[in-house]
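[#protein-structures] MJ: dropping Thiol:disulfide interchange protein here for a structure pass
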Amino acid sequence: MTKRTLLQWAVLSSLLASLPSIVNAAPAPASHGAPAASSGAIALPPGTRIAERDTGRVLASMARDHAIKTVRGNGKRTLYVFSDPDCSHCKRLERTLERIDDVTIHTFLYPLEGLHPQAAVHARGVWCANDRNAA
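AK: finished. structure tokens for Thiol:disulfide interchange protein:
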């Protein structure tokens, strides 16, 4: 698995973790009396919170020194954000996050060059700035 693929999975896990409600996984129903595992489905105990389990594993393996850290207030809550410096939706999210107090935000630059050809150049500019939070 490439680093890019791992980062894409980290983004997906982060997005799942940010959903307002987490869907609780239940064992897959058996078809025709056969065990669920025979259909290729993975049976999990009721109440297993997949997004939390996988997100914790991914976040534990991430290098936080590769993120831009912003602390507001006492920083007791933690958010992980993946942001493309040229993405209008990312900018809107960042403006929204400015209104949240008592939070530590770890922003990982994630340039989407397929959508924004200059995103990597702009991300390097942000990363190399004296004040990354202001860049």
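MJ: nice. Residues 3-17 form the longest helix (15 residues).
AK: one more thing. The radius of gyration is 19 Å.
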